[in-house]
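User: For a teaching handout, I'd like to show students what a predicted protein-ligand complex looks like in token form. I'll give you the sequence and the SMILES for zinc ion. Please answer with just the structure.
Assistant: Understood, here is the input followed by the structure.
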Amino acid sequence: MTMTSKFNSAEAVIRNRPLGSTHTSHIDEDTAWKQLLDRDGRGEFFYAVTTTGVFCRPDCKSRTPLRTNVRFFATQEQARTAGYRACMRCKPEAPRQASPVARMCAYLEREIDRPVRLETLGRLVGMSPFSVQRIFKKAMGVSPAEYQRAMRAHGLRSQLREGGTDVTTAIYEAGYGSASRAYETQPLGMTPGRFLAGGRGEKIGFATGETTQTGVPGWVIVAATQRGICWLALADTCEAAEASLRDEFPAAEIVANPKLGDMVETVLKRMQGEKQAVDLPLDLRGTAFQLRVWKVLQEIPEGVTKTYGQLAAEMGMPKSTRAVARACATNRVSVLVPCHRVVGASGSLTGYRWGVERKRELLKKEGARLA
Ligand SMILES: [Zn+2]
């Protein structure tokens, strides 16, 4: 599926909301007005100007109307039904073209196993190889070749085969709203490409704590972006814990942040089997498939274990046991995304990213019955 068609189908979903129900209530008008003022293309609405009788996309280049003259619509059909005509400038009825960078990303993802020349990308979007390199790097933080390498390194190729997903879907479902917008803007302060390249340009704070008091020997590191915990690892020593963070996000700016000490305390309490009311914010980013697996993991109650096969079956993908196992193995947030509650078909502990002994201790604390 190409980037363009993905985007269009996403729009179609939004636009197919029932007309008769006059549900403009789901538009938060304050947010919409702010997006209109910013000419923010991410706005999922159309606005009409009562004085001109014209309706526009939020990122139209026309003069900003007075707030009192503006009406918001969820769909262009609603705007038309209300008697407004489409703006000649922003052409709200024309399907939106995917950006050149989005088109290049889609192409690179399709050709993931094969080096792609800048000339080829240039022909695709009608630009010189030099411009291709420049605009791609500016938008994605990495060169086209590095982008492909990052995609390969993160196993997205095998997910294309086994998980039944594609990178575009993955990014779309990861909460970027739509793939082309994910590529054009940086809603999280970082493009997907930058994230895949190891957190380039992102600031990640961390704090550590000793876990031995919980019965699990060693140390824990809790690392967080502004959005939430992005890395929670267990290790033998404080140094090893910190090194694991730097390995996972080699390009991020990593700084100790004592304010995260509270999060460490909460994690230690969880490890001691104390049920906490506090839900710590998580910043999980991965492919759609990984995110689905991690979500299912969070639904396994304490004291319960499941097999990889059970999880796969619950997700409606009974043939994807191996892919599920790999998604568990690539979990970045131990304990809180309890991949330790997944065991082998025979009830054996199988592997654990942070050591099988720690898995055993965590399960024992939770009162799980072990094979
Ligand atoms: Zn317009």
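For the handout, you might add this sentence: Residues 56, 60, 62, 87, 89-90 surround zinc ion (CB under 6 Å).
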